[in-house]
Amino acid sequence: MKIKKLIFTFALFSTILVSANSQTEETSSAYTLDTLLSVTRQNHPELLKLQEEYRRSLLDVKDAWWSLGPTVDLQASGTYMVNPPLGAMYVNSDDIINAIQWNGTKPRNSGQRIKIYDGMENTLYNLQLDITQPIFTWGKITNAIKLYNQVSQIKLNQITQQQDQLETELKTRLLSLYYMNRILSLLDEEENYANRMVEVSENAEKSGMVIHQDVVDAKIQAKELEIAKQDLVENIKDQLLELERITGITELKFEEIDYSFVPALEEDFNVLLNSEPDELENQILSGNQTSMKMLTQLEEVSRTAEKISRGYENWKPDFALQMSGGYSGSRFPLFEPNWRRKDDYSINISIGLKTTIWDGGKKIRDISRKMSEVETASINKNDARSTISKTFNSEWNAAQACTMKIEYQDLKIESAEAKIDQKQLMYESGYGSESDVLSVKIERCNAQIEKEKQTLARARACLTIEYLKK
Questions:
Q1: Which CATH architecture best describes the domain 28-68+137-317+363-469?
Q2: CB 397 within 8 A of CB 353
Q3: Fewer CB within 10 Å of terminal CB in the chain, N or C?
Q4: Helix-helix angle 277-284:362-429, to 10 degrees
């Protein structure tokens, strides 16, 4: 007996352990919101493009900073000449002797030739080193650094904005799947009621209690539900395909997604809709949000570009220090015999300026263009503020309307449930028909479906408001 109990206990423990392991595997295999958001940020092509643009903008900033320093250019060449243009040079010793006025005995002429130059060597080296250091450029370089920093910051904010947009899109699509699946379950329930209604109507027609038109109406209602269900299934497939596109996960299924985040998100929506709309709008338009920051930065970029263009005005010279050193000789530098005396080296130091005296007014027109771009950026910023304000108020009103419609559908559901109990009691007592019970149940399903639709619409509006806040 004890052995049997031991075997039973061991088998029960193994079953519980296997069940726990299977549940753990199912839970771990589900895609949570954080997991989907992480893979979306890793795989979304637009976000990856923005990240590459930001990396390039950082390189532009480094290039702008190095414009403050010197530019160093080196030119070097080495030549081997098979037949050098200058050969060895000789003088006749007799010519030297005859050119001297001797006081005593004059040496005899020997006809000997004396080499005075060995000729060019077969090798020739040329080196030239130029260093140019800007001294004063009317702020063009420093403003260019500022401009590239501003552009780089805009690129970074674009990444943040794209991440926020992807998060909002991901949540919207996940909520759409969640609520559409709930609607699909309600449609299955309602379809069962409608099919039963067709059966009851056909039986009632045979007994002469209803006319054929009532049967046709019941079939039409059942067919409408079938079409609505098919459309909803297609919409669910489309949402899954869009999720695959933005996340990069192939063959994603509804059952593989963890929807445990939905209740917390709905609670956040309730808190959001209980806020003061004026305070919320002021917060959105305060300038701390990414979209408003980018508009302000674009305006600053236009102003910085205008300052740079003013640095190119006529009669505004740029000053630079230029130093150059060169060498030209038959041996590599410092290896040439007696190189100190040959004077093959050159070192030059100069200060130069460059300015445009007259260009037909082109520089002045460039400044006018930049001033116009500043005004355009300011207009775009004001227009964007107006658009954001309009979008917020529209979504806020839509969310509030959806809340009232949800409350209205709750009342209809409560009323339908009371009617179901009443009709069911009358049917069981023999004073009513099954058709009356089915009609009220279908009415309740319609109210429940409408409630889910309004809940989804409210969630989309709240997610848009949350996105405007970021």
A1: Up-down Bundle (1.20)
A2: no
A3: N
A4: 150
238-251 in b/e form (b: 16+ CB < 10 A) is: ebbebbeebbebee
- C-alpha span between 148 and 136 (Å, rounded): 20
Alpha-helical segments (H) within 248-361: 262-273, 277-284, 290-310, 339-342
- At 425-459, the pLDDT tens digits run 998 888 888 888 999 999 999 999 999 999 999 99
pLDDT for residue 248 is more than 80: yes
* Cβ burial 178-207 (10 Å sphere, 16+ → b, else e): bbbbbbbebbebbbebbbbbbebbeebbee
Predicted pLDDT of residue 22: 41
Reduced to 3 states (helix: H, G, I; strand: E, B; else coil), residue 182 is: helix
How far apart, in whole angstroms, are the C-alpha atoms of residue 298 and residue 151? 8
| Side chain identity, residue 349 | I
Distance between CA atoms of residues 37 and 170, nearest Å: 7
Residue recorded with tokens 């080499």: 115
The larger pLDDT score, comparing residue 19 to residue 44, is at: 44
Q: At 124, is the secondary structure helix, strand, or coil?
A: strand
Give the separation between CA 248 and CA 238, rounded to whole angstroms.
15
State both tokens at 279: 């305070």
CA-to-CA dists, residue 246 to 34, 54, 214, 262, 349, angstroms = 14, 21, 48, 20, 60
Q: For CA atoms 27, 28, 31, 37, give the dihedral sign.
A: positive
In order, the DSSP letters of 41-92 are HHH-HHHHHHHHHHHHHHHHHHHHHHTTS-EEEEEEEEEE-SS-SS--EEEE
pLDDT of residue 257: 93
Calpha distance 275→282 (Å, rounded): 12
Comma-separated ranges of CATH 1.20.1600.10 domains in the chain: 28-68+137-317+363-469
Residue holding tokens 């419609």? Answer: 405
State the average pLDDT for the chain.
85
CA contacts within 13 A on the Cβ side of 169: 17
pLDDT of residue 335: 62
Residue 342, pLDDT score = 62
pLDDT at 336: 62
